[in-house]
Design a protein that fits this description.
Elements lengths: L2 E6 L2 E6 L9 H16 L5 E6 L22 H10 L4 E5 L2 E3 L1 H8 L2 E4 L4 E3 L13 H9 L1 H10 L3 E2 H6 L5 E2 L5 H12 L17 H11 L8 H12 L4 H16 L2 H15 L18 E4 L3 H12 L4 E4 L3 H20 L5 H9 L1 E4 L10 E4 L5 H14 L5 E4 L6 H5 L8 E6 L8 E6 L5 H13 L3 E6 L6 H18 L3 H11 L5 H8 L15 H7 L12 E3 L5 E3 L1 H14 L8 H8 L1 H12 L6 H12 L7 H9 L1 H10 L6 H8 L7
Parallel strand pairs: 2-3, 3-4, 4-6, 5-7, 6-9, 10-11, 10-13, 11-12, 13-14, 14-15, 16-17
Antiparallel strand pairs: 1-2, 7-8, 15-16, 18-19
Helix pairs in contact: 1-2, 2-3, 3-4, 4-5, 4-9, 5-9, 9-10, 11-25, 11-26, 12-13, 18-24, 24-27, 25-26, 27-28
Bound molecules: 3-hydroxybutanoyl-coenzyme A.
The site of 3-hydroxybutanoyl-coenzyme A has 25 residues, from β5, α3 and α11.
Length: 674
């Protein structure tokens, strides 16, 4: 049974139990419907309480049912039936009432929640909208402005806020939800008419809609679902409920069968799948991580440290010189203060995090660390030297990690007598912000070390993916062919502006040249201004090192606003002449084919070599590490939607060495993702 029925005198209590998150799967819907029918048919019942067992109230519709043939009763039908009940229905909420769960709650006549509960409609994050009356009932309960925030942005709100805005009626005791809900049901059992959200009046609020759209235009760029959510809320104003809900249904179905929602649902499951490590049981014992050591207090080391400090884990940070250590510590403090100034942390939280930080000049101070992360200069000999020293200093069982972006973890591990304890933990810059963590599995890395790193990634709120040892691992390895090809396009007639625009139009936060300017044009430069072998060398030689010098592929003003650079155009022209590269008109489509298709090709090679566990992991890397638009589902999902045959034809046309796995899948009509 997914729903058990209890009686408490004249109150019928329906408790759903569908682990792990009480998704509103078909059996749950069916049995909830039966519970409402039973209450209606039993004269001795005066009111109904709907509650859930386990860790949460309904977390939404069952996403695994989407795209499959519908099974009765549908959720909209069920929520209308709940609201239509002649006997009061009280929703008793704990955990998270999300999506369809929130819709069940607001269709109930009364809502009581524990103080720790959260309510929300995150459907927009799956490229959808609340499709069971949510877009129509929420504005009627909480007003247009609040409803827009909830449906079009999708972030849940705490119970206390939900109560303030009129979504929740009453707060229960944290441990007495069911008793309080029963008492509440008894209290309201005879009140008529029943408060039905769908029948509340709602006036248009065009100012609120316009203000919301203005404030979020950037955030919603490229996404279809936010506009559909907004349209439904607008429809709710000044339109009878029945008409509004019909409109909502049409919009929901349109989104559901669109590519964007499929992409976003793919990423929802991909993110969760990424935490499963092939060949390692879920319950493998983990090593305790109570204290972390970080070597290097530069941008990377400092950013990495903040992740642990914010999670309440003490960090010892090591530098070689006092001034570098002081600078690093001051930067961490400044970053926290900036977060506090934006209201995202309190002053006490900042102080608490900083109190967990121990700066030191001595590697010896890492002797009691459970995990040490090296984040120094990308030079193998330097890393080997550090790992040799760590081997002598660290306690047995300590996990030794390198934050290298490219280097061979096995060679680094060989500098120790404990390669089983060594792995890569590749954070992405800025490390305190970017969600991705590549966990690099060395040839000898022990299972419990990997499992510990994976569990730790959740604690520090990262999305982690397992990568094998190869140059650049998953993300940077795929970035390389894109950057190489972007440079070639400049020589053949494209401009940095055009290449970047195509990438931004595609949905990336920035294009290859904007990215180079942000990261530093001088990164990896040989530092000899007389040796000019590429456009990049020429820029670097002139001190055009990117944003930090207010000049790179673009010119920048004091506020870092970019403008096209006539000097860069000259440098490119000069190079075209010098190399005698034939010019042709480069279309936007050619830029897509020559910069994005090679990424898919590299992804296929990574998969074939077993350097990524699954195609969806590659998608997770690109979504969370590089800002690939989530509505395109990552490069491998996108390749599937483009059609692998088309990708292979494009790669062949431009003379790329096509990965055998990609060609094989294209020939067989296969896909990378399911
Ligand atoms: N349907 C099916 N499976 C779901 C699910 C859902 N709505 N929500 C979560 N799951 C699954 C996950 O895939 C995961 O499966 P796995 O163990 O096999 O990997 C398992 O439940 C546990 O999920 P999490 O790992 O995410 O658990 P957390 O405790 O970290 O988070 C949560 C719990 C906050 C509820 C989170 O799972 C979540 O955000 N779920 C999605 C909520 C959502 O988007 N609801 C709206 C659905 S669409 C809808 O309702 C349409 C309606 O308007 C018509």
């Amino acid at each position: 049974m997914s729903v058990t029925i209890h009686r408490h005198g004249d109150i019928l209590i329906a408790i759903a139990d569908n682990p792990p998150v009480n998704a509103l799967s078909a059996p749950v819907r069916l049995e909830l419907k039966a519970a409402i029918e039973q209450a209606a048919g039993d004269a001795s019942i005066r009111a109904v309480v709907i509650a859930c067992a386990g860790r949460t109230f309904f977390a939404g519709a069952d996403i695994t049912e989407f795209g499959k043939p519908p099974v009765e009763p549908l959720l909209p039908e069920l929520v209308d039936m709940i609201e239509g009940s002649d006997k009061p229905v009280v929703a008793a909420i704990h955990g998270t009432a999300l999506g369809g769960g929130c819709e069940v709650a607001i269709a109930s006549h009364y809502r009581i929640t524990v103080p720790s509960a959260k309510l929300g409609t995150p459907e927009v994050k799956l490229g959808l909208l609340p499709g069971a009356g949510g877009t129509q009932r929420l504005p009627r309960l909480a007003g247009v402005a609040v409803a827009l925030e909830l449906v079009a942005k999708g972030d849940p709100i705490p119970a206390s806020v939900a109560k303030d805005v009129g979504i929740v009626d009453r707060l229960a005791g944290e441990t007495s939800l069911l008793d309080d809900a029963i008492a509440y049901a008894r209290e309201v059992a005879d009140i008529r008419p029943l408060p039905r959200a769908s029948q509340r009046p709602l006036s248009p609020d065009p100012e609120a809609v316009a203000a919301f759209e203005r404030a979020n235009a950037r955030r919603f760029r490229g996404f279809e679902a936010p506009a559909a959510n907004i349209a439904c809320v607008v429809k709710a104003t000044g339109t009878p409920y029945a008409e509004g809900v019909e409109f909502e249904r049409q919009q929901f179905m349109k989104l559901m069968f669109g590519v964007q929602s499929a992409a976003q649902r793919h990423i929802f499951f991909a993110e969760r799948k990424a935490s499963k490590i092939d060949g390692i049981a879920d319950d493998v014992a983990q090593r305790p991580i109570a204290r972390v050591g970080i070597i290097g207090a530069g941008t990377m080391g400092g950013g990495i440290a903040m992740n642990f400090l914010s999670a309440g884990i003490p960090v010892t940070i090591v530098e070689m010189q006092q001034d570098a250590l002081d600078r690093g510590t001051a930067t961490i403090r400044r970053n926290y203060d900036a977060t506090a100034a934006k209201g995202r942390m309190t002053a006490q939280q900042v102080d608490r995090a900083m109190a967990l930080l121990t700066p030191t000049l001595s590697l010896q101070d890492l002797s009691d660390a459970d995990l040490v992360i090296e984040a120094v200069y990308e030079e193998m000999s330097v890393k080997q030297d550090i790992f040799g020293k760590l081997d002598a200093i660290c306690k047995p069982g300590a996990i030794l990690a390198s934050n290298t972006s490219y280097l061979d973890i096995d060679v680094i591990a060989a500098a120790t007598k404990r390669p089983q304890d060594v792995l890569g933990l590749h954070f992405f810059s800025p490390a305190n912000v970017m969600k991705l963590l590549e966990i690099v599995r060395g040839a000898a890395t022990a299972d419990d070390v990997l499992a510990t790193a994976m569990a730790l990634s959740k604690k520090i709120r990262k999305v982690a993916v397992i990568a094998g040892v190869c140059h650049g691992f998953i993300g940077n390895r795929m970035l390389e062919p894109r950057q190489v090809e972007a440079m070639k396009l400049l020589l053949e007639g494209a401009t940095p502006e055009q290449v970047d625009r195509v990438h931004v139009d595609f949905g990336m936060p920035m294009g290859p040249f904007q990215m180079a300017d942000l990261a530093g044009v001088d990164i990896g430069w040989h530092r000899d201004p007389n040796r000019i072998e590429s456009i990049r060398d020429a820029l670097a030689a002139e001190g055009r090192w990117g944003q930090k010098k207010q000049a790179g592929f673009y010119d920048y003003d004091d506020r870092r606003t970019a403008s096209n650079s006539p000097r860069v155009a000259e440098i490119i022209e000069d190079f075209r002449r010098k190399t005698g590269t034939p010019q042709h008109e480069i279309t936007d489509q050619e830029i897509v084919e020559r910069t994005l298709y090679p990424m898919v090709n590299e992804g296929a090679k990574i998969l074939a070599e077993g350097k990524a566990q699954r195609a969806s992991d590659i998608d997770v890397v690109w979504i969370y590490g590089y800002g690939w638009p989530v509505y395109r589902g990552g490069p491998m999902f996108w390749a599937d939607t483009e059609g692998l045959k088309k990708i292979v034809e494009g790669l062949d046309r431009h003379g790329f060495d096509v990965a055998p796995l990609l060609r094989e899948k294209a020939e067989q009509g296969g896909r990378f993702t399911s």
